[in-house]
Fold these 3 entries.
Entry 1:
Amino acid sequence: MEGAVAKRKVLSSGLTVSQKVFVRSRNGNASKIVREHYLRDDIPCFSQACTQCSELYQSDNGTVISAVLSESPSSLQSSNIGRHYVLLDTNVVLGAIDLLESDSVFFDVVIPQTVLNEVRNKSLPIYTRLRALCKSDDKRIAVFHNEFSSSTFVSRRSAETINDYNDRLIRTTASFYSDHLKSTGIKMIYITNDKNNLELALAESLDAMSLEAYIGLLPNSQELLDLLPTLRTDFSRSGTKLKFPDYYSTSRLLGGIKNGTLYQGIINISSYNSLEGSISVSSLPKPLLILGSENLNRSFSGDTVVIEMLPRDKWKKPSNDIVDEETLGSSENADNDDPESVISDRERRLLTQEAVKAQTSGNDDDRVFPTGKVVGISKRSWRSYVGQISARSVDKTQSSNATRSVFVILMDRSLPKVRIRTGRAKDLVGKRIVVSVDSWPANMSHPEGHYVRTLGDVEDKDAEQEALLLEHDVEYRPFSKNVLECLPKEGHDWKVPEDLNNGDPQLAKRKDLRHKLICSIDPPGCVDIDDALHAEKLPNGNFEVGVHIADVSHFVKANTAIDQEGASRGTSVYLVDKRIDMLPMLLGTDLCSLKPYVDRFAFSVLWELDQDANIVNVSFTKSIIKSREAFAYEQAQNRIDDESQKDDLTKGMRYLLALSKKLKQKRMDAGALNLSSPEVKVHMDSETSDPGEVEIKKLLDTNSLVEEFMLLANISVARKIFDAFPQVAMLRRHASPPQANFEQLNEMLRVRKNMAVSLESSKALADSLDRCVDPNDAYFNTLIRIMATRCMMSAEYFASGNYSYNDFRHYGLAVDIYTHFTSPIRRYCDVVAHRQLAAAINYEPLSIIHRDKTKMDLVVKNINKRHRNAQFAGRASIEYYVGQVMKNAESLEEGYVIKVFSNGFVVLVPKFGVESLIKLNTLTQSGAAKFDEENFKLTFTTEAGEEREIAVFDRIKVQVKSVLDEMTSKRKTQLVLV
């Protein structure tokens, strides 16, 4: 409990010092803590119209503080408000951040420090967005440090709750501004959505109103009202028969997690069945299944949820049904989102079928999974979602400006429809729109949200591309002014200093390697060149090999604006037609890029390798290099293969290739996995930027050459930084997969092909994958490797202090320790690894932010998320462009059945790297079929009367074409069984 603030005293400097008294209780022992709290009388109001504060904008050290708020703010004639600023309460920022970011309202805003602190404590993502807004050139937002101003600080009363105290601090700030600005004729409007706080503010004669009331006074109020969060409280209806179960209390959730009766984890909703979710729990051998909307209990895919396990007699197998909202046939009447439809008749039939199947199969079946129900949400994954208004939920008879409820169908089919209120429903039909989710009341069958903005028409290229980035939470806005100011002032004219002895101690530490025959080998058209290599034969018969990595950390210093932006973005994102950079283009494609023929700063790893590619010794140095050539993979391969090329540069590449093959063989012998994924390339028309054709990527020996030496560099650096920083080294691990992950694949292989994969070790898995060969089908082994890849755990970044050394292991690469060091232009992990390596070799000290384990944990958590999102965005981009290619070019292709359900099957088409669901109702009018679960086989009669049998691993002919998804209006590749 915090006590009252004690006496104040005025110091000779003019500062006022107070004492804050805290009583803290730990382990039953109470301790009294007294802290000094300094108050100032020189904090300006930040208004350009204020003459009282003019001398405060020039500090003692000459730093100029900007007066942010306009001298002529917007004026409202309504209610005689006139010219005014607005001061926002915490609840307004938390609930209406989308409105605050809008370019149609809120240009002169005061955010009290108390509000900033409360927002940070309640929602870090919204706090980050608010801080970005405060720095934006498009808004005039002043952060007023009211808790350090002698004019606005008030002591906490003995019986006052912390919330009431914070409210009083904010009201005091509003009162100060009202009095302080009287002479300017500018009013301060205090906006709060807290009913009690609003009443107190009005009682104190403040100009205060609710957010909705304020928006209603604006000229563009109809449009802006759509952006208001849904804060309805009239959800209770008499006669409600069904509702979602209430969540457990916080104390019950915490107690259950602690004593092991409840489980916490991130829920993943199946992409094929919106009624089935799962969470992985480390203490359980199999994931926990959550079946049915009542058990899912308003959870979204990605939420951190608390699960209570159901009794063993309710454990079930994963569903064999394809289920989405279209299948369930839920109501389209958003104004009557009847709680009685929380569980539809279709869902009841499905759940009953699952229960019967579980009983008939017996609970001892190896394929039965533990089941559970969601009893609490620890953390929501809610973000901005993209979708379109369901035309069927729009009443065509209503006037166009009538405010009503409509459903928004999200682009992700695993997510439920969102109910919003808007007065522009008819205008928004056929548009891609962005919505935010506000709440999901227990007696509503769908979540409540609000409209944010329109991206454009459905199928408009720019709208669909922006939708893709938003859906995968990719930051794509231009870099801010603060970030760009961190770049070298010389811009493109920056050059490596010619004189290495110019008095710069850091420059003098660099090793001059410009005489080495260095080259880079990258994909065609690569401009952000991270890495370059060289090799030469030594007099003793060994080889000197160097990997040279762009020295990004020379330009991106820790804890600067550009560093914080890089840490936030985490990675560059590569789409078919564009690249979303982690760092400004000047660095990524120019100053840091290891372009040929120019001097560049690098971080070099130098080995001496013997004839068998064993490491004799290794060293690390900051360097200066000058690449001789920038090769594409095919160019390098052709030069190596051309026997007429006998120059030293080509000889070096041949040494590299020979050594890389030995390195790869050693990895394979150690148990490294050769996994696979569908790799395709979409060719774009150079003039129109339209997609032309799709082809499978060709992998050459030079691809493997580069990969092997990048792996070797990453391993060598990982060992060095872990030795230097055993608690905070930036590393990457890949956990071994649980047996349960491979159960279904092994069962399919056993039944259909009399094969199996072994999980005893990575070596056993690699060897067993090698044996999965069909002599009649050359692609079969690749197919199994693709399916095995999907059974693996995801690799993740981590700070070394979080795991024991045995858990550092990278299962896929079969190495005991690993990191990412070789791509700092496009990955933030690599930037941190560079800084730690520089400190490890005594080049420069390591910043405190990379020596603080708590801060490192936040960094790795974010970059893990950003890395996954970037991968998904890249795949979605390929999927979108393949759909565009197929729009005008249907074709007959070979596909492979990789999954069979009771009402459809999934087919992978290798040529285009796409997979698609073929539903049973598109193959037969009657819908009747026989599903053989044991043999992964579906038998049905086509509309032509022909009996067909489809089983997993079957090679079939399909017609590939592009269609608009009827539900999401998202263009997708559709496969038609031939």
Entry 2:
Amino acid sequence: MKYGYFDDKNMEYVITTPTTPLPWINYLGSDEFFSLISNTCGGYSFYKDAKLLRLTRYRYNNVPTDTGGKYYYIKDGDTVWNPGWQPTKTPLDSYECRHGLGYSRFHSSKNEIEASLLCFVPQKDSCEINKLTLTNKSNQAKELTLFSFVEWCLWNADDDMKNFQRNLSTGEVEIEGSVIYHKTEYRERRNHYAIFSVNSPIDGFDTSRDDFLGPYRGFDSPVAVESGKCTGSIASGWSPIASHEINITLAPGESREFIFLLGYIENPKEEKFTEPGIINKARAYDLIQRYQTSEQVDKALADLQEYWQKLLSRYQVHSANDKVNRMVNIWNQYQCMVTFNMSRSASYYESGIGRGMGFRDSCQDLLGFVHLIPERARERIIDIASTQFEDGSAYHQYQPLTKRGNSDIGSGFNDDPLWLIACTSAYVRETGDTSILTETVPFENDWDKAAPLMEHLKRSLNFTITHKGPHGLPLIGRADWNDCLNLNCFSEHPGESFQTYGPSEGPVAESVFIAGMFVKYGEEYAQLAELMGDHDEAARARSEVATMYNAVLNYGWDGEWFLRAYDAYGNKVGSKECEEGQIYIEPQGFCVLAGIGVKEGLAQKALKSVKEKLDTKYGIMILQPAYTRYHLELGEITSYPPGYKENAGIFCHNNPWVSIAETVVGNGNRAFEIYSKTCPAYVEEFSEIHRTEPYVYSQMIAGADAPRHGEAKNSWLTGTAAWTFVNISQYILGLRPTHSGLMIDPCVPEGFGDFCLERYYRGTNYHIQVKNPSNVQKGVKEVIVDGEVIEGNIIPIVDRKDVFVEVIMG
């Protein structure tokens, strides 16, 4: 069942009913100011950090769901309704929500009044613009009253929802004309405040939630709206809000436009104020003046759309498959940019309070957006590396505002260091910029402890080399990519950082998955060392890679598939010897994509086992059989019910690893089958089962053991976006950057047909036409560059604006 449709021409997803299975959201903002907005106008806004600088409140896990947002109440006689349906839920005569790239539009009508609401965050300004247009479609005049509404968050979202003994006494506001200022805590000289304004004279206002709503009422029935008049309340403590009242008379056929602006103002630190609580309004005035007219707003929206069109044009495919085209050209890249901005910090599943930026997460996300914004990818790599410890390990998470490691989560995830090599390698292959490797970067943000980035990468590599277990495989520490696989749970001190242990002391649980990572990224590190002229270091790295490769073959192979790990007692995990959890997806995908076992014929066996034991119609499960009881020696993974999350759920994140692995062995049919099972454009048809947004990837889908097999959770902020884009763009369509140029090596399903690729790479536009006259799955017979046949399948780097390439598969 569908709840909308793709509008590829306008690059929008059109939702045709407000009653979607779950709230379907969009992200507004691409720089420092961000908003989350649902298809019923729920959501919230923040500046830079969703925890520390949140402007508006949102209530997670609330009943009814999706409570809190930017609401516009339209009172037409005794009828009160909202353009986005919530919160009054008044039945509408028509409804449509269009989620676009960085903006959302709502079109609805009731009793011959049409409402059109446009919401977006303009480029370079810290505000959200809401342009509301009301049109009288009847043949008689209409008397309406419009009420706006936002509820202020007291900045620190965590403190806001817990510290009531203090917060209920701190709320402060100020009203000046049509501008409502939220200045709570400004008297502490924090030099920031928020505003909510409208470009129209107002007939009333409220800033106290209690007065606006009335006793024991919710957002669905505010007493001010019901009575048709705001109370003029001035919040003093308790819960401050901002609401404008505007009385409107519309002649038949007449339209009126109102521009509402929610803004964040931050004054320079050097500015001093003589009186606590007195705010400098000059910047607010300047901001408001930039968005007073429809012409100004329309120009800002056009600039935003041009930004996205230019950005996404860096990689485009034109094929006979519309679903592939729309995901590659629009939605997958768009989601990659959102994960760049948010990491795992703010979604409808991540509250924006606990996680901040993930070390591993941000490194993986970079793989999906480095081709779009390489200059900001460079900045992100420096940010990530600056949180690293001197021994090569790292805080698992850090806060985006402070760039400081999150001590609540700590470290000990032993895959983290290798991901830094992965993202740096991707950046250098994309840009050719080796200067980043000589950039001086601090450890733990302490400039007294700083070294070139290449030294950071060396310590990442050495951390794995010096932290091996009895089988010569990497120690897993607290966990690896699978955060819930806690194989050292026997420890008397489960909260300690396991990276402090040497190779022969403390917990000795080992990870075959990290071994696969080391083989892949150890080779990529060696290539970086060669670029820097350090051939001895490259040889050393490759020697260690060969040793690890052999350790996997000797101790990581279980006969038909790769083992997952050894626990702290030396017992196998992910083995046919296990009663439950006999096979895991991670090593089958990553070891094969790293090339382990390909020439030995083991890779094909592992992938066959995946298909036979882990595959479902909704994707590949993370393990089988599911765990039916708690295993202390395995940890949190066994705490979930069968079929959910790490206990035999379908983790969309690692399905691309298996798809890439299938391209490594040349199986385009199977690679594309895996790709399509989790691809949003393909799952749209059963949205009533899938439930999350049909235009973006989710982290997890319930596995075959779950009562709700096929139901998705945790949409938007997931490494699935980056890894799927790597899979489809670099391995299935086959265009991937190397240090010497663009390699073209497609691996497509039979019948996929010819296709064209447009790729911006190192200052040049590559126009590539791929022909497949023999309908092969893999193999490049000939590459013609600007009319000349070249040797091999790497398109050389040139200093020209445009390059035209013809590729013949065969």
Entry 3:
Amino acid sequence: MISTSFLFFLVTPLINIYIYIYIYIYIYTVKLLSVLCFCLQTEFNDKPDSLFFNDGVRRIDFILAYEDEDKKDFEKRHTFQRQYFEASLMKMGMELEAIQSVIDEKLLFVKVHMPWDVLCTYAEVLHIKLPIQPNDLSSRPSRWRFLSCITKHFYPNEELITKETEFFTAPFEKDRLEYFYVRDKDVFFTASMRSRMAYYILSRAPYEIRGNIKKFGITKLLDRGVYKAAYPLHDSRFNVESKEEGCPNERFLLYKEWAHPKSFYKMQPLNLIRKYYGEKIGIYFAWLGFYTIMLALAAVVGLGCFIYGYRTQDTSTWSKEVCDPEIGGKIVMCPQCDKECKYWRLNSTCEASKKLCIFDNFGTLVFAVFMSIWVTLFLEFWKRYQAELEYTWDTVEFLEQEQSPRPEYEAKCIYERKNPITGVKETVPYTACGRCLRLSIGIGTVLFWILLILASIVAIIVYRLAAFFAFSAKLRAQDMKELEPLKEYVTPQMATSVTASLISFVVIMILNTLYERVAIWITDFELPRTRTDYENSLTLKMFLFQFVNYYSSCFYIAFAKGKAVGYPGDPVYLLGKYRNEECDPGGCLIELTTQLSIIMGGKAIWNNIQEVLLPWVKNLILRHCTRGPSEKVIPRWEQDYRLQSLSKLGLFYEYLEMVIQFGFVTLFVASFPLAPVLALVNNLFEIRVDAWKITTQFRRIVPEKAQDIGAWQPILQGIAILAVATNAMIIAFTSDMIPRLVYYWSFSVYPYGDHLNHTMQGYTNSSLSIFNINDFSNNSRPMKTPYNITTCRYRDFRYAPGHPKEYEYTIYYWHVIAAKMAFIIVLEHIVYFTKFILSYVIPDVPYAVKEQIKREKYLTQVVLHETNLKLVTKHGTGFLKEKCMEEDVRP
């Protein structure tokens, strides 16, 4: 018998010869197709604003740009891949035209056009909704129509941006074209639809085949440098109106009525934004505009609360007692660190106590409750507004119909499984165990980075303790007057707080940059099926990290700092070395306000530098380095090539920036009523800056569908629920409001005529405990003690020396603790109950929108399905009659 190895020896050369012949035929087929492709290269026709091929008929739907490379080995492979890719595009029905740059001889552009038949095919594949008949439902008049003479000035110019006719729409079907409202084939598919379909094909066209492995997608070619850029065209220059026939000048109109600084007070032309950039960009600007409008109400109330606190800071009984030389001036406070710190007088914190009264007053309590209700109204009204946009922009059933797998997902599909819904076998990129492994690695990596943030927070806390001791020691070495507290106490405390906040901000920015790449890598490794799944997964990872990164230092100051410090005779130490940090003499609320101001302000400045200054500088340098003819003779595609490309996650960072801001506005608003005011001012600039950026500095974005704001919606709802608890706890544990209320109603009752009078007089003295300086331990005793004092005071509610329970908590302390817990429970239940009632009363979808959705579904059923059913019935009846006549039988 012939051995298996001998058979293998004979068959192997035959297999190799077959493979070589296949590769030979394959290469020459590709070369032939590439020759046909490059025969289309033409010269520039001196029409810089043209949006068409040189024949002036075929519209440009996409542009591919590449450089003519030297004939090196890897560059030959790039050329081969590019030629095969372009041949694949032509095989899929697309038409190409190559043209050389007017500036750089090595730079070439490939124009891509989709013929009518290809457009119809992929419109059906992507379930794009198109008009079937004009909307015949009468629209309800606006409630504010009597103010139209005033409000019209705050809307874009209707003569420039005209209101478009509303249509009922249905998913496109190529075989039923006659039932759709086609007036002109050239404008039936909008430019954004054409670009979206073109990108869909580009993402799935193969560029190389190796055995059973097919490599495809323009994304991979861009990453490998085979192509330098791929983008749809802007329809005109942003600052000059195009005179070319068939140019809608939508970019020019958007710049003039939306992105230009002089239009900052106008409402956004959302329908035109959606038409030009797609639903995903449109829904972002709709959400940002709605959030900004709602912030205006919160800003007015917050500003009123701030003005109330500012006006009453000098009349507050508590601040007056602190500043009084006969009260605060005679109270000697204990040192707040070991050995190096000195005694200080309470009236040294006069200015700090006045500033505290601006933020820590009864108006703050009212504002915190108001913001808890405000955030509920914001989310509920946004759901209604979003439902209107979903219907108007034809995205009601987007998630169910139009979500196609990502090219990266399809490329890794090698395992077969039975679909539990359809029962049909399909390919997936991983098994159940593989998916669990990928998710486990992702979760573990995210947890590791979150622990890394917590470690950095602990390091900053240690820095605060060491820095405060060092600043105090430095001032101790200086020759200062005894008990001059303003210079020798407040300076180290403020220096420590400010420098720690700045260091915290720098650490936050560094960790953000590092984690961003890690989060993208993890999400790519998990291989989500659709684009929405990918973005939701990345959103959750990034927000969990950013939440801990941005808010952890604020949570530390609000709920941990100064809460476990012991008392001067028995202080608490961190790591057995550093004495635990106490609050500023004015209270931890002032430090929390400082931290919020630095992080919010620094974040806004940094984001503006990244979003505006960097793209502008890059474009300026690029224009300077590639000097050539003026824009009047540079073609449209080359003008766009010189702009910056928006990253795949560009919109993701915009959402993340606003959601983090939303957290600052809601989670810690009880400590900083001006947060909504700062957010409002920032957002007014943010809208116009983002509009200016994407209109003038970036290439046109590939339009994408989006039904809503995605995973950000549940994140906002989670922040809203958490905000109630955090604000209640800030008022209870960080501010002095509850101790003051307990003192006012329980411990400050004096007879006044026939009734009892409540007063805040004496609160300062009652809130400070007494300590005998002889009870200091050797490790904590100050180096220098004034000869004329025997006791000092500290912030706590403990029995005085000599009492049977000396240095133990007083009954007042337990009253205050009980009041704090009761306040949190009552406030949370009241607010949560109110939120539940509001959520139930306010429907998510307006009644008028429900009517229109039902009407559209009815028309779709009548026009498309029932008409087809009648045809089937008619043909079926005719067939039955013919059979009966053949058999001579009555039907």
